[in-house]
């Protein structure tokens, strides 16, 4: 799957992008630490990312997940990674839903790139997978994520106390959702 927005290309890259993936996570380690669980040992190694990208490709082929890395549109094969948008936890009928996650390069925050990517990717994946609902969570104090999701049409459901362990502590998260037209009962 490859998507384009006015400023971005979103795709699951091949192994040739591993050095750029490692660079993205390496330079953003401190930036992402408050929002994501600590990475496993070996996370920033080629071997780890060879296995992980192979798993991401299998999961996409099996309709289990969609992982889209963000690149500047027309930036070429050596362009740095600007972020990632992920859809996981796909559920079939009767639920027909998926969980959204994302991360943006610290140097590209506040430029509207993640809003652009999330809006486009959510609409495309929901349509392509006949989803009824996409959900997401964000730390209650993450104002930027709240704005990204609101711009993408998500509605707040509730706060989940002590939902995720990051940066050495349990943090409350806001659960949000966006609904789409109900899929037909015979759609997969």
Describe the structure.
- With 188 residues, this protein is of the alpha+beta class.
- The protein has a domain of 131 residues: Aminopeptidase (3-Layer(aba) Sandwich).
- Helix content is 29%, strand content 34%.
- It is built from five helices and eight strands; from the N terminus they run E-E-H-H-H-E-E-E-H-E-H-E-E.
- Strands 1-2-3-4-5-6-8-7 form an eight-stranded mixed beta sheet, with helices on both faces.
- Strand 3 and strand 4 form a beta hairpin.
- Helix 4 crosses helix 5.
- The longest helix is centred in the N-terminal third of the chain and has 16 residues.
- It is globular, with a radius of gyration of 16 Å.
What portion of residues belong to β-strands?
25-35%
Strand segment tally: 8
Largest sheet descriptor:
8 strands, mixed
Rg for CA atoms: 16 Å
Strand order of the largest sheet: 1-2-3-4-5-6-8-7
Helix content: 25-40%
What is the residue-mean pLDDT, rounded to a whole number? 93
One letter per element, helices H and strands E, the order comes to EEHHHEEEHEHEE
- Name the shape in a single word: globular
CATH class descriptor of the domain at 2-132: Alpha Beta
> What is the fourth-level CATH superfamily of the domain at 2-132?
Gcn5-related N-acetyltransferase (GNAT)
Q: How would you classify the helix and strand content by structural class? A: alpha+beta
Which architecture name of the domain at 2-132 does CATH use?
Answer: 3-Layer(aba) Sandwich
**Residue windows where pLDDT falls under 50 for at least 5 positions:** none
Oligomer: single chain
- Distance between the ends: 18 Å
Q: Might you state the CATH topology name of the domain at 2-132?
A: Aminopeptidase
Helix run count? 5
């Amino acid at each position: 799957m490859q998507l384009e927005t006015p400023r971005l290309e979103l795709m699951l890259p091949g192994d040739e992008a591993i050095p750029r993936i490692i660079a993205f996570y390496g330079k953003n380690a401190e930036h992402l630490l408050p929002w994501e669980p600590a990475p496993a040992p070996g996370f920033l190694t080629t071997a780890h990312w060879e296995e992980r990208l192979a798993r991401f490709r299998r999961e996409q082929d099996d309709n289990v997940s969609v992982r889209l890395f963000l690149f500047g549109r027309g930036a070429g094969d050596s362009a740095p990674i600007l972020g990632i948008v992920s859809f996981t936890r796909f559920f079939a009928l009767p639920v027909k839903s998926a969980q959204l996650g994302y991360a943006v390069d610290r140097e590209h925050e506040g430029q509207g790139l993640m809003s652009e990517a999330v809006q486009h990717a959510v609409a495309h994946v929901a349509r392509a997978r006949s989803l009824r609902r996409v959900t997401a969570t964000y730390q209650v104090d993450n104002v930027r994520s709240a704005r990204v999701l609101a711009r993408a049409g998500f509605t707040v459901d509730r706060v989940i106390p002590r939902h995720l362990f990051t940066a050495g502590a349990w943090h409350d998260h806001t659960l949000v959702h966006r609904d789409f037209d109900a899929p037909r009962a015979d759609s997969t």
